[in-house]
Amino acid sequence: MPASLEIEESIKFLPTFDHNGLIPVIVVEQQTKTVLMFAYTNQEGLDKTFQTKQAHFYSRSRQKIWKKGEESGFIQNIKQIYIDCDQDALIFEVEQVGGAACHTGRKSCFYRLVDFESYSQDGKVNLKVIDNHKIFDPAKIYKS
C-alpha cells in the first residue's frame, strides 16, 4: 500500500508529528459539542493520555508535558479521540470536569468572536466578547 494510502485508508494509528515533534489537538466537550480549547501534544503526552484516559498536552512555552487540570482540578476525561485523514491533527472529545477549560476561568478558550463588521481599510478588526462568565477566579487557582 502506498504511504499516503496507508495513512489515509488503513486502520493503523500513525500520527504525523511536525518538525518539533508536536501534533495539534482540538478539544471538544462530548455532551455539548462546544469547542473548548486548542493545544499541542507530543508522543509522551499522547502516551500519558492513553494510559490515564485524561488529556495531556505539551506546553511550548514551558517546554514540558502538562495534564489538563493539574493545578485547577478541571481535568478532561477522554471519551473519544479522532484523527484526521492525514493523521496530522487530533480531536479529543472529553468530559470537562468542573465546567471550565480556559485558564481565564471561562468554559471555553474561544470566548471572543472576530467582528467582521469592524474591519477597516487599514486592516484593523475588533473582537466581541461572547462569554464573559467566569466559572472560577484564575488568581485564586494558579500560582503564576
What does this structure look like?
The chain has one domain: Roll (Ubiquitin-like (UB roll)). It is 15% helix and 31% strand. The protein contains three helices and eight strands; from the N terminus they run αββαββββββα. A four-stranded mixed beta sheet has the order 2-1-6-5. Strands 3-4 form a two-stranded antiparallel sheet. β3 and β4 (64-67) form a beta hairpin. The chain is globular and about 45 Å long. The mean pLDDT is 95.
The main sheet orders its strands as 2-1-6-5
**Cα shape:** globular
Q: Biggest β-sheet: count, sense, barrel?
A: 4 strands, mixed
Structural class: alpha+beta
The number of strands is 8
- Unreliable parts: none
Query: What's the SSE pattern?
Result: HEEHEEEEEEH
Count of DSSP-assigned helices: 3
CATH topology: Ubiquitin-like (UB roll)
Query: What distance lies between the first and last C-alpha atoms, to the nearest angstrom?
Result: 50 Å
**Helix percentage range:** 10-25%
Within CATH, the superfamily carries the name Phosphoribosyl-AMP cyclohydrolase
CATH architecture assignment: Roll
Total domain count: 1
CATH C-level class = Alpha Beta
| Average pLDDT metric | 95
Kindly estimate the percentage of residues that lie in beta strands according to DSSP: 25-35%
Provide the gyration radius in Å: 17 Å
